[in-house]
Amino acid sequence: MAIHTPTRRDLLRWTGGGALAGLAAPLLGSCAGAPEEDSGSTSGGDDGGGSGGDFTVYWNAGHAYAAYDKVIAEFEEAHGVTVSFQKYQWDDLRTRLLSDFASGTVPDLVEEPGGWVQEFAISGDAVSLQQYVDSDGAEMGFPDDWQPRTISRNSYEGEVYGIQLHLTCMMLLYNRGMFDSAGVQPPTDWGSFLDVAEKLTGDGVHGFAMNQDDGYGWPWLLQNGVRYYDPDTKGLLVPHDAAAAALQFQADMAHKHGVSPVPTPGTDYSGPQKLLSAGRAAMIITGPWDLLPIAETSPDLDLGIAPALHEAEQSTVQAGTSLFVPAKAKSPDLAWDFIKRITALEVEVAATKEAGMLMPRLSWVQDPVVQENERYAAFAEGFAYAVDTSEKLRLTGKSGEINEQLFQTLYQDVVMNNTPATEALDRFLAAGQKVLAS
Amino acid sequence: MRQLTTGPPRRRRLRGPLAVFAPSLNRRYVLTAYAFLIPAFAFFGLMFYLPIANIITNSFNTGPQANQFAGLENYTRAFEDASVQNSFTVTFIFGAATTIGAIVIGLALALLLNQPLRGRVVFRAALLVPYLTSVAIVGLLWRNILDPQLGILNRLLMDLGLPTQSWLNTHPLATIIAVTLWMTVGYTMVLFLAGLQGIPEQYHEAATVDGASPWQRFWRITLPLLAPTTLFVSVMAVISGLQAFGQAYIITGGGPANATDLYIFHVFNVAFTSRDFGYASALSFLLFIVIVIFTVIQLRVGRRNEVQY
């Protein structure tokens, strides 16, 4: 049999044909629309079951605990799905998620750092979980067993859109050895704080280390009675004079009293923790996320945790992550089942034992693991007066620009550049009101 | 009676609009060329031109999904937005400094390493390594080096009995310019080295015989003959300077108080923090126009100054 040797014309024809096919395939593919759920999809029925396929979860890279691996394995076995557990830093997670929203291909479940639930509920990108709460809430203890303040921060127009996964707050961490050597006690208000910080400053050590992240400046504002947004007057950082005083107090610690180094701008919020671990700072304000790094890098450090300071009031920042289901998620029933499993009390306790993370269940606070641990108990006490700073601002739908950009500029201008707080605050208020009015 | 012919039958000539498909020899070559170009057109079309068209379309919209028509509102807003003006000024200074620095330092290094020095190959390679490293790694590296409390640079200053510095607080823009230059001068040095080695030695010899000093030879021979390289370096440096992102994203977060809020970083925040994709698209398109204008001006001025001996 004769072998046909392709001619140059044949080669050209095939090349052209291949190129046309290559060009046409993605275009035709894009015209085909979103893929339909097939028999192997993870869509849950009434039983919430699936029959194979992927279940995509976006998670914070620092929260992938072994306690959760066990939950994932059980979930996969129960539903016959493969969990694609994708881990990101918060900024990258947001970038990925917004790109997903734009493309229409979204994950099944998302862990968020606080604030996104209401933002995406307003924009229509998160699904209401109210029907699931109505049917399963009593069985899982929601909302009765959750810290009350965690419900409103995950709700919009009376419906629940997110379930709190972790609950944290910022407290005053200090080096007990340095305190004992200086003969001082943990401070209780701003005056005693400054006295103690001055006594502890010297010989390469700062009494306090401020954080470059503006979120860490909020305990001072809250303690001076400041609220981010007043829906009645539509005012930002009210009362203004208290806000200016709180910001100026922080700037003065670095630029006037010299009890804190000037924070360096950046994206890393672990600077103060590193200074405390290295014995270069005696006090920092932070959350439980720094307990593990401190224990790992300075196992001999005798760490104390003091209650939040009391100025106009005793207060601190409430933080913590929540879980929500994107509106276009293909398996909301399965996502709800995942939420139920991963927020079970025994999983919360296991994660606390493993990583020191704090949890939102009221029964978690009563658990012996928490009660018998001085540090967990100290943080848990803070839940009583911790405040979600931007909850009311988020409901305006303008929190992104105001909170992430304008307030950051205000904080850095005052604390890093030593611009008078009243002057910087005036600029913030003018720009903020413009954003609110837009 | 049917006419008998020898050889292959003649093809009937197509008339009217179908005539363009008539496979004349020239047309076959043209079609062949287009066939080979189709993959490139497909790639650029899908990866560049469609996204650009999408950005232009989005720039006239607003809302979280950029699906509400807003006309020219995003563009008028951009010209009134103080934060945009600030980020453009910051970026202009950054772009100018990194361009001038890359040319001056890169050329100086190239002139130095074009000499018969011992170990010059090692120096050339060492200077090129930062350019081969990702901006994320370079950013993290310098963040740690420059840390005022725990950084190695301040430790060195302390050991030398010198006062410690907080560069990212006191001179943030100059610091990220310096880091960028540290990263990029190796590449411009290589380009200038290639340019220097392309200049015939006879020109220098003739000028030396005529009594020209080294300085005169540099100004009258080396620099004019390096004009094409300088033009290329300057165009690329301006474009990358105006599009810089990683330095602000990794090292300073745009701070303190927007002192290093580079334009693309600002656009990124508008898109992914404020979730205003329409406005971010308008800002992106404005930068595209600015870059085109700068590039055209540079090419025109640069080509006018090119010389040949």
From TrEMBL, chain A:
Keywords (A to Z) from UniProt: Signal, Transport
Keyword Nucleotide-binding: no
The UniProt record lists the keyword Calcium: no
GO biological process per UniProt: maltodextrin transmembrane transport; maltose transport
GO cellular component, one term: ATP-binding cassette (ABC) transporter complex, substrate-binding subunit-containing
PROSITE patterns assigned to the protein according to its UniProt record, in alphabetical order: TAT (PS51318)
GO molecular function (one): maltose binding
Name of the protein described by the UniProt record: Carbohydrate ABC transporter substrate-binding protein (CUT1 family)
From TrEMBL, chain B:
Compartment list: Cell membrane
Top-level taxonomic group: Bacteria
Domain ABC transmembrane type-1 intervals: 88-298
Keywords assigned by UniProt, alphabetized: Cell membrane, Membrane, Sugar transport, Transmembrane, Transmembrane helix, Transport
Provenance organism: Haloactinopolyspora alba
UniProt GO cellular component terms: plasma membrane
Main location: membrane
Record keyword Signal present: no
Record-level GO BP terms: transmembrane transport
Segments crossing the lipid bilayer: 31-52, 92-113, 125-145, 173-196, 217-239, 277-297
Pfam families named in the record: BPD_transp_1
Mode of membrane association: Multi-pass membrane protein
Coiled coil, from the record: none
InterPro entries associated with the record: ABC_transporter_permease, MetI-like, MetI-like_sf
Protein name: Multiple sugar transport system permease protein
Family: Belongs to the binding-protein-dependent transport system permease family.
